[in-house]
Amino acid sequence: MASQKSILVVDDDLHILEVLEARLSSAGFSVLKASGAHEALLILKDHSADLMISDMKMPDMGGVGLLTEVRSRVPGLPVIFLTAYGTIPDAVLAVKAGAVDYLTKPFDGRDLLKKIHDILDSASLPRKKNPAGQTGHIGESPAMTELFDLIGRVGASDVSVLILGESGAGKEYVARLIHQSSPRKEQPFMVVDCGATPAGILESELFGHVRGAFTHAIRDKKGLIEMSDHGTLFLDEIGNISQEMQVRLLRFLEDRKIRRVGDVREIAIDCRVIAATNANLIEDIKAGRFREDLYYRLRVVTLNVPPLRKRKADIPVLAKNFIETFCRNHKIPQVKLPEKTVEWICNYPWPGNVRELRNALEGGVVLCKDGVLHPEDLRLSGLPGVEDADLTGSNPFSLEESERNTILRALQESGGVQKSAAELLGISRRAINYKIKKFGINTSRTGTDEDN
């Protein structure tokens, strides 16, 4: 394979060009050399390349400018950037703009060759709109199409990814898509629930322990980091880990080595790290709850999963897929989804996002009597929805109606405390008071009072 692949190397440092040519040629690649961006573009007019390696800082045109030109002329060409330590933010921007990966100078030749082989192997696989090949399971709206595109770009690389989004929006699903679209897809995908694991247990869960390390440690145990070797480690709700664990995790990300609890030996681990949170880590950093250096280690690339209320076009497709799955799993005849129910679920704000939609539909499918899913079936399943009148509102797609329902839901979620509801909505106390009066919301029905 390698003897048939051609790599274009671009750098204004002739010594770097010679080093790269020697290393790549000895690995069986055909090497094309350019001492600047303009020369590289001229070469691409007359020669085909399977991959380009370029410096970020060059006098005639920078790396991002070259990337823009290359993407317009040779859209499918993978690009790896070489960057000095001080220009890592530029390289991160380049990855977001479409580069596959980057390496800092001085770089290890073995790391570079591994990245090249992984990228070329991944590029030879058939590409799909949805990297997991599961079209429709989390949506096909413009927002999700853009997210799928970003997943496809970062999938082939080993860069750390931070996934942001509200609870239930599908962050773990996105992490699995990244893993499944990567060269590591046949290797383990290990999930660490940092939010649900007690702090005293998390260290052993992550790093493992040796026999006798503490009471009841009767045998050696591998941690989840070690079990993710050659695969992907997914750290869910990363914002909940303690300061002590932040230090240990940062050391692992820097050294890629771990020590089991109670052990003196270090174990080298090769895994990709993906983290997710619904917290505002920037605010946590300002408050001293989260380490800034760990944040930048985790967020080489940041992906945002939009909440369901901001991609309502996905709701009918999601609902149809979920209902088909539930009917198959529960071995019941196919349940119909009438237009009235579609309108209602599209109008409902879904503060719990895809998870709440899924749970409500599963309960509704089990409870519906006539093989037709009505809005009332969703309420019977335990969905704490809007007032009765809102089920059959005159215009289910009214922006004001949707805003009113969202405020009602926030009040119900916060136990009627207007200050807490305002925080859930990201608005001020004065703003929620104004909207309560504007929409004529009866605060006595939501348990609120004017003093809370």
- In one word, what is the shape? globular
Distance between the termini: 69 Å
Please state the average pLDDT score.
Answer: 82
CATH superfamily of the largest domain: P-loop containing nucleotide triphosphate hydrolases
Derived from helix and strand composition plus strand pairing, the structural class reads alpha/beta
Strand content: 5-15%
Low-confidence region ranges: 125-137, 386-397, 445-452
Number of helices: 19
User: CATH architecture of the largest domain, please?
Assistant: 3-Layer(aba) Sandwich
Number of separate strands: 14
* Biggest beta-sheet profile: 5 strands, parallel
Alpha carbon gyration radius: 26 Å
CATH domain fold name of the largest domain: Rossmann fold
Proportion in helices:
40-55%
